[in-house]
Amino acid sequence: MKKIPFFLSFVALLACGSNQNTANDNSKYAEKYAKTITSKDLSKHLYIYASDEFEGRDTGEPGQKKAIKYLKDFYVKSKIISPIGDDDYFQEVSAEWLNKNTRRGKLKDSENVVAFIKGSEKPEEIVVISAHLDHVGTKNGEIYNGADDDGSGTVAMLEIAEAFKKAVKRGRGPKRSILFLHVTGEEKGLLGSKYYTENPLFPLANTVCNLNIDMIGRVDERHKENPNYIYLIGSDKLSTELHTLSEDVNKKYTNISLDYKYNDENDPNRFYYRSDHYNFAKHNIPIIFYFNGTHADYHKPTDTPDKINYELLEKRTRLVFYTAWEVANKETRIIADKAKKITK
Questions:
Q1: CA-CA distance, 128 to 178, in Å (whole number)?
Q2: pTM above threshold 0.85
Q3: Residue 119: how many CB atoms within 10 A of its CB?
C-alpha cells in the first residue's frame, strides 16, 4: 500500500467523517418524520374515506366526487400545494376520453387528484407516489366500500405527504420534488394513470420513479402465521439500483419480510400488469408496486375499514415513506439500467 502524505490523509479523513455525519443526519430525520405516520391517523382517514357516505367511489359518480373533495380538503388544510396552480388539485379526465379507452360501461367525467412538494436542490426531478382513489361503487343495493382496495393506499399517501410536509417546515424537505398522484378509473382499466402518462404535468423524462400503493391493509391466507410481510412487484424490472435501495431501506428501518412471489415473470395472476405503476413502467420509469395480496373480501361489500390491520398498515406506509425519502435525497438519480425499447 502506498504511503499517503499526512496532509492528504487528514483531508480524506475529514471528508469521510463529513459524509458519515450527513448519512447519519439523513437517517435521523427520516426516522423522525416516519414516526408521524400513525395507525391512529390512518384509521381516522380510512373510516371516513371507505364509509358508506362515499358510496364505493365509482368512477365519475357522486361518491367519487365526495372522495376527491376529501383529498383536496386534506391537502389544502395541510398547506401542500397543487402542481396545477392556485386552488386546482384536479387533473380533469373527460368522459369522452374515458369511454374511448374502456369497454367497462359508460363513464362520466372524472378527475385525478394531484399535490406537490417541490424539491430543494433538484426540483425538476420528480418522484411520483400513486394510489387509485376509486373503487367499484354499488351493486344490487350493496356498497362496495373498498377499504383495502384502495382506501389503504389512498390514506397511506395522505400520511406520507403530511410527513414530508412536516420535514419541509423544519428545513429538511426532499432534494427532489414529490408528486402525490391519486388516480381515477383504475378499476375500469388503469385509466387515470394512463391519462396522466399521456398528459403528464411534468415531463416523463424527468420522472425518477413511481412508487405505487394498491392494497396494503390486510393479510392474505399465505401469511396468516407471519403477517409481517409485503409483496413487492416490479422493483427489479427496470432498475437494479432501485431494487437494491429498496432492500437496503427495509433492512435499515422496517425489517418487513419482502415477498417477491408475484414478481415472477411466469406469475399466472399477472399482477405486474394490473395496477397503475404499469403505465409508468411502459415508459421505462422504474417502479415498485406495494401489495398485500388478495383475500376473502377482495372486490366484495365486506371490504370494510374494521377489517384493516392498522398497525401493519402503519409499518408498510412507513416503508414506502423511507423508500421515497432515500430516492428523493440521493446524490444521484436512480438509473433505469434495464430500460427496454418502447413500442407503440
A1: 6
A2: yes
A3: 19
